[in-house]
Amino acid sequence: MHLEGSCHCGRIRFSVDSTEPYPFMRCYCTICRKTAGTGGYAINIGADHGSFKLIKGKRDLKVYRAVLDGKESSGQRHFCGHCGTALWMYDDSYPDLIHPHASAIDTPLPEPPANVHGLLDSKATWVRVEGKPGDTRFDHFPDESLADWHRRHGL
Predict the structure, then answer these.
(1) Which CATH number is 2-152's, of 2.10.70.10, 2.170.150.70, 2.40.40.20, 2.40.37.10?
(2) pTM of the entire structure?
C-alpha cells in the first residue's frame, strides 16, 4: 500500500510503501508515550525503507535518539522541528524497515481487526488500556513482529 504522510504544519511531506499498513500495535513505552503519544501510547506501522521518499522539508527535519541505560539508542525518531509532529522511526539495526507513526499518515489506513498493547510495564498511571475484547497485552515487547501479525491475520 502506498502511503503519504506529513507533519501538522505541512513543512514536511513524505511517501513510503507498506506491506504492514494496519495500525494495530499500541506502544506504551516511555519514549513513545513522551515523544509521540496521544492516548498515552503511540502507533507505528511497518514500511519498506527502500521506497521511502522525503518529498519536502529536509531543513525542518530533526532527529531524537533516546538514551537508554546510559547509552544512546540506535533508534532515530524523526520529527518536525517547527511543529513537533512525530513522523517516523528508523534504526540502522533493521536497514530494510522504517516505521512511520500512524498519526502522521494522511492516506486512509485500514482498520485493524484487533489491537496489541505492548510495553504496559511503562504505562503512565493515568492511562486506561482500552481496546477490543480479545486484544493481547504484553508487559514488555509482543511475541510477534509487525509482519508476523499481518500474516497471521491474512492481511
Answers:
(1) 2.170.150.70
(2) 0.90
